[in-house]
Amino acid sequence: MTLTVADLRRDVTDDGDVGKGDRLRSDRPKRRSFTPEYKLAMVEAYDAATEPGAKGALLRREGLYHSHIIEWRKARDAGALNALAAKPSGPKTRKSEAEKENERLRARAEKAERELAKAKAALEIMGKAHALLELLSESANSDAPPRK
């Protein structure tokens, strides 16, 4: 079975018949994504078009821009078939609940360590202030004339 450009395009755009009532955001356009096979087929079809106006007609028929072809051709020439695949949007990896809990506990422990360091510094300053006051008190007692 030979795939045609129309078959590849149908695979890209067919996302099932969803009624407007079923969509949460029916007023927002859906971002298109293209398979690597479709991208390669489009680049090959664009490069094969030799008649005047054939390249523009291909782009209009497929709803593509010239920049798509340029980008896909660069990726193809770099040998990055996987780079032709649409880049996934959203979070790169999903964290498990245990990882989320570990991060939360790690942040809590770091905050507690910072507060402990502040408390230790405050106690050290208080200790030095106490020692200074004792030293001043002793020198004041020894300088004072004896009472009769």
Structure description:
It comes from Nonomuraea antimicrobica. InterPro entries: Homeodomain-like_sf (IPR009057). This is Transposase. The chain is built from 5 helices and no strands. By secondary structure, the chain is mainly alpha-helical. The chain folds into 2 domains: 5-12 and 30-84, Orthogonal Bundle (Arc Repressor Mutant, subunit A), CATH 1.10.10; 106-148. The longest helix has 47 residues, at 97-143. Mean pLDDT is 79; it is low at 17-21.
Secondary structure: helix percent:
55-70%
Q: Based on the structure given, which CATH architecture of the largest domain is correct?
A: Orthogonal Bundle
Q: Any idea what the radius of gyration is?
A: 36 Å
Stated plainly, the CATH topology of the largest domain is called Arc Repressor Mutant, subunit A
Low-confidence stretches: 17-21
Number of helices: 5
Q: What is the CA-CA span between the terminal residues?
A: 121 Å
Brief rundown of the structure:
This protein is mainly alpha-helical.
Task: Provide tags for this entry.
single chain; 148 residues; mainly alpha; Arc Repressor Mutant, subunit A; 2 domains; 5 helices; 61% helix; rod-shaped; Transposase; Homeodomain-like_sf
Give the SSE map.
Elements: H1 5-13, H2 36-48, H3 54-62, H4 66-77, H5 97-143
Helix pairs in contact: 1-2, 2-4
